[in-house]
Hints:
Elements: H1 6-37, H2 43-50, H3 54-60, H4 64-89, H5 93-109, H6 114-118, H7 123-149, H8 159-170, H9 181-192
Helix pairs in contact: 1-2, 1-4, 2-3, 4-5, 4-7, 5-7, 5-8, 5-9, 7-8, 8-9
Amino acid sequence: MTADGQGAERTARPRRADARRNQRTLLDAAAAVFVRSGVDAPVRDIAAEAGVGTGTVYRHFPTRADLVVAVYRHQIEACAEAGPALLESCPTPYEALGRWVDLFADFLVTKHGLAAVLNSDDPGFQALHASFLDRLAPVCGRLLAAAEEAGEIGPGLEAYTLMRGVGNLCVGAESDDRYDARRMVRLLVAGLRQPR
């Protein structure tokens, strides 16, 4: 180690990166278990999915509320990061918008029990809805603006309106096997397209 302490910094950084990776692994595992079994799934199922002991889950997330909030925020961030990536990789802004709305719908449909969580009196849960809108509305707005500028959709649709419409189409979809929310959402997005 050098006299200025740089060796200690080099040693500490990989541990922080490992800790972040481990936390992402836990959040991905918890999200997968929540999709299958709801937010009340046993912690041992989440630990098994992540390949760790239950103590590791509790070390990162001491309460179920901590875990649910962290998973929700993690999923919001993944959806937010997908928007710019899709604009870069898709052939047209309209296709990027459609693929992002699919991801957004999947996020809404597969979050068993989160509606109840969002209505909770817990202050950590109350902040989720505001965080959700603050992070995702600008991403949706950017996608809409790009598709509008390309002449692929008509003018004037606000991100909040589209997100609310998608959300309404997804309500209750997780508890009704006969209802295909994703198909309805795709029909909504198809209706945005300007005729050529």
